[in-house]
Fold this protein.
Amino acid sequence: MPWVKLGEVDFALSSVPARAVDPALAHEALFTETGVVVARAGHPLARARAIEPAQLAAERWILPRRRELERLAFDDFFTRHGIDPPEAQVETTSTVLMKSMVMQSDSLTFIPRELIWWEVQAGQLLPLNVRGTDWTRIVGITRRRRGSTSPAALQLIEALREVARRQFEGMVE
């Protein structure tokens, strides 16, 4: 966001706040993501119809770093259920690394459902049915309120809007 604010980049495609916190930035929601606990297809918990939060506390976790929104939501999930959040075996900002490590181990992760679509289709990963997970975040475009936007960036923004309309219609809250 600092680069957007300073005009070093025209816009950011990222999570956007539910309410604006910086008057210099404008946010446009495109779609809503839903967080899920993810395991490899053959994980022992994959057969469970419903999983209680307490069952997850002793599992090994590959997680985003502590300051990331997904990690905060993960920690809040356990705290809401009166459970100390588990420590991560590995912390990373790389979704690719998280998914790869989960596919090759009995570790779990917590990421947006939309980021595992291809792996679910290939039978490699699956979201677990965990009681009480209700995390969502809005993904969108952040731009400066003042200043110009390059013609190329404007075309890309319009293409992003169109893809979001087609793929995620009705998913923005």
Q: What stands out?
A: The longest strand covers residues 25-40.
